[in-house]
Write a structure and sequence with these properties.
Chain lengths: ~260, ~290, ~270
């Protein structure tokens, strides 16, 4: 019924959206690794500023993007608090008996918090600007050299693709089964956690059985259409690496280098 | 009336043949198919009907190599589907009943390309074949649509396009419209009818009306091939219909009860015209 | 029981870019002991409408009345017991280890005593012609058998109104006929049936009144003859045949059911 896009993908036209998914995946990986090599606040802030510029270029509304960070706020707050209250570095700023707040703790707290936020933001930027299908393609491509060491890259990619294809379908099915059981008097909202978990059995069992049946029928259909694994298979969709992609990778590396040096 | 199995004696000109094929599902007491012999000539359009559990779905899966017969011979374009399934599947495509579970890719055009990918067709060639197949089923503009946003009829048409892209000579349809609504059924049947002249078609269905225009209708009941006749004959044999729990669609049913020819009259317009003719000839003689 | 919808509107995903108005002011009533058919193409709002009748969905505008009382003021569980809803392809919701257990789900949820529950299970299975399946696993049944069990599961609530959303979809003709006979049987027992269907021929055989839904609105509602003869291009086959002959043979009348159509045709001179 609705055509919501999956997960956090935000479909608009932007330079970032148009980049090859492989470039974006690699850039994100390099970015994440690089973050751990930066040890100065100035470096982190510089990188944060660059990321903010990227988000702007990707035309994702700030509000939407910040919402992506919501799940980690708790961890971030916890990290800050732990550092603030338990670190003894630097000058004591405030003290009430056992609890002391040192300047070192404050600094360290914010540093770590910022790093966590940047980690999540970079992953968030990746998923927000890359369609799930493109991501799957990118991952398949990047993993394909591993085929030489018998890693089932094709099978993994096929699984991801099929999962993406069926998630909305299974979602609709779940809604339907819930409705059918509710029509028979099932109540999913009453009782404590154990009761509620049990009340989900009439939904989980049919969904699971249904999923197996679906898989069976799908396998038959795939086989009937000549599927026999990745051997000798060609690909309809094409990923083409362009200058812009190489440029993106280079820029990412440079920004990180600057951050590390700062 | 044609003899079941007569076609198999002429061997080579047959697109599909079964010679005394039997099959039982493991753990089942009754055979799903029992000594079934049949033959399809190139270009024929043959319907397969019969009660549930009669063996229709089993037949489909024996023809494309998903199942291997316990005894007997199956030949598709001269090949044995059980030993050469990959080859056979280039020549015989199956359209399954459930429109949802036949679509494997996240986008329409990718799904249509699936069969071609499996055959290792080069990308350039794929693009034109996919485009042509999509056009044949009237789904231009749907290329980047996601399957879950499509109606049942549209999904089946995508599945059909996926089959046609591989350009098989033989199409086997396993109750392709039974899960669709009236509009979807009409859409799919329209496109199937259009393929009649270029393909050999085996159409398994519950709806007798869908195969009223077939060259022949096979009735499978309890795993046995009990009838192999033209629709014209079958539609007028009330006891055969009853024995095999076959239900005539309304127009032929009315025709039969009124003493008119059930297989020739398929639409309300045709029936009304035939009735008018009768009343006019009556008033003329009076 | 009289189930009434007054100017019911339903908007999905309000306030988001995916907002869609599925029902735009639907008014209709279901009288005691009648079979009301709701027909319309995909996207007409049929299924949405069905879900309003047992409050699985709540109207964005307008109201749903049970015997004159606003459905929202009634206990949900009470309402769902009195108005039973069977979804399309209901067998996808079968879950218990045995058929008996599955059919017993709804009566147990109602808090009935075990004896009463067993009684209801027995009765419902018999009504659906599935008594012999009681000890089997629902997952090992054929499509038609599963459908019967699923419907029995809702019937076991002894609803006053039973809503069936495309009950014969995907079924073989024999099971179809059994289900249609069941619908007539229920009506005979005083239970109202709302039959949501795209199959007009099926509607012609069992319904008393029909409501045509189009694009979220009621396009027509009334007796089968009234509604279908007004627009024979969207009518059951029997009506289409008869209406083609009406001009030259007005004595044919307005038959709808197969039997009466056959009689009317036979009565024509020379036929």
């Amino acid at each position: 019924m609705t055509t919501r896009s999956l997960g956090q993908f935000y479909p608009v036209d932007s330079l970032v959206h148009a980049l090859d998914p492989r470039a974006k995946i690699l850039a994100t990986a390099v970015f994440v690794a690089g973050l751990f090599l930066i040890d100065s606040m100035a470096g982190l802030l510089f990188v944060a500023a660059t990321l903010a510029v990227l988000v702007a270029v990707s035309r994702i509304p700030a509000g939407t993007f910040l919402r992506l960070l919501r799940p980690v706020l708790f961890i971030v707050a916890l990290t800050v608090l732990i550092q603030v209250f338990f670190s003894r570095e630097g000058v004591t700023l405030v003290g009430w008996g056992f609890f002391e707040v040192h300047s070192g703790g404050l600094r360290q707290g914010f540093f770590l918090a910022l790093r966590i936020l940047l980690l999540v933001s970079s992953a968030g930027l990746l998923t927000a600007t890359t369609a799930p299908v493109a991501l799957a393609d990118g991952i398949e491509d990047l993993l394909s050299p591993l085929k030489r060491v018998r890693f089932p890259a094709h099978e993994v990619a096929m699984m991801m693709s099929i999962a993406l294809r069926f998630i909305p379908t299974l979602g609709e099915e779940a809604e339907k089964v819930k409705g059918a059981q509710a029509a028979r008097g099932a109540d999913f909202s009453e009782g404590g956690p154990l009761r509620r978990a049990r009340s989900l059995i009439p939904v989980l069992v049919p969904l699971t059985v249904g999923a197996f049946r679906r898989a069976d029928e799908l396998a038959e259909a795939m086989e009937s259409r000549g599927y026999r694994g990745g051997e000798g298979r060609t690909r309809y969709r094409e990923l083409r690496f362009r200058k812009a992609d190489a440029l993106a990778l280079a820029v990412t590396a440079l920004v990180l280098l600057v951050g590390i040096l700062l | 009336m044609e003899n079941p199995g007569e076609g198999t004696r002429t061997g080579g000109s047959l697109a599909v043949s079964c010679e005394r094929v039997s099959f039982s599902y493991p753990g089942s007491e009754r055979p799903a198919l029992s000594e079934v012999s049949l033959g399809l000539r190139r270009g024929e359009y043959v319907g397969v009907v019969g009660p549930n559990g009669g063996g229709k779905s089993t037949l489909v899966r024996l023809l494309n190599g998903l199942l291997r017969p316990d005894s007997g011979r199956v030949r598709v374009s001269g090949r044995d589907p059980a030993t050469e399934p990959f080859e056979v599947r280039k020549h015989l495509g199956v359209l399954f009943q459930n429109p949802e579970n036949g679509l494997v890719a996240p986008f329409v055009e990718d799904d249509v390309a699936f069969g071609l990918e499996n055959l290792g067709v080069p990308r350039q060639e794929m693009q034109s074949k996919v485009a042509r197949a999509i056009q044949t089923v009237g789904l231009e503009g749907y290329e980047r649509r996601e399957p879950h946003t499509l109606s049942g009829g549209e999904k089946q048409r995508v599945a059909l396009a996926g089959l046609l892209a591989v350009e098989p000579e033989i199409l086997v349809l396993d109750e392709p419209t039974s899960m669709l609504d009236a509009a979807g059924r009409r859409e799919v049947l329209e496109h199937l009818q259009a393929l009649r002249t270029e393909k050999t078609i085996l159409h398994v269905t519950h709806h007798l009306g869908e195969v009223a225009g077939a060259d022949r209708i096979l009735v499978l009941n309890g795993g046995e091939l009990v009838v192999d006749e033209t629709p014209g004959r079958l539609f007028s044999e009330a006891d055969v219909l009853r024995e095999n729990r076959l239900v005539l669609p309304i127009v032929p049913k009315l025709a039969l009860e009124l003493g008119l020819r059930p297989a020739k009259l398929r639409t309300p317009e045709e029936l009304a015209a035939a009735i008018l003719e009768r009343t006019e000839s009556e008033t003329r003689t009076v | 029981m009289r189930l009434e919808l007054r100017a019911v509107r339903h908007v999905y995903a309000r306030g988001t870019p995916f907002e869609v108005e599925a029902l735009r002011g639907v008014s209709l009533s279901v009288e005691t002991g009648e079979v009301l058919a709701i027909v319309g193409g995909t996207g007409s709002g049929k299924s949405t409408l069905a879900q309003h009748m047992n409050q699985l969905l709540v109207p964005t505008g307008g109201e749903v009345l049970i015997d004159g009382v606003d459905a929202r003021s009634l206990e949900k569980s009470e309402l769902r017991r009195r108005v039973g809803l069977v979804f399309q392809f209901p067998e996808s919701a079968l879950f218990a280890p045995t058929v008996e257990e599955d059919v017993a789900f709804a009566p147990r949820q109602l808090g009935l005593g075990e004896e009463e529950v067993q009684e209801r299970v027995r009765e419902s299975l018999v009504a659906l012609g599935a008594a012999g399946l009681a000890a089997r696993s629902p997952f090992a049944l054929s499509g038609g058998e599963k459908r019967r069990v699923a419907i029995a599961g809702v019937l076991a609530m002894n609803p006053e109104v039973l809503i069936l959303d495309e009950p014969t979809a995907g079924l073989d003709p024999a099971t179809r006929e059994d289900l249609l006979a069941l619908i007539l049987g229920l009506r005979g027992a005083g239970i109202s049936v709302v039959l949501v269907s795209h199959d007009l021929d099926e509607v012609a055989e069992v319904a008393d009144r029909v409501c045509v839904l189009h694009d979220g609105r009621v396009r027509a509602i009334g007796s089968l003859a009234d509604v279908f003869y007004r627009d024979p291009s969207q009518a059951p086959t029997t009506v289409r045949v008869a209406s083609l002959l009406k001009e030259s043979k007005p004595e044919i009348g307005a038959p709808v059911r197969f039997a009466e159509t056959l009689e009317a045709l036979k009565a024509l001179p020379g036929v």
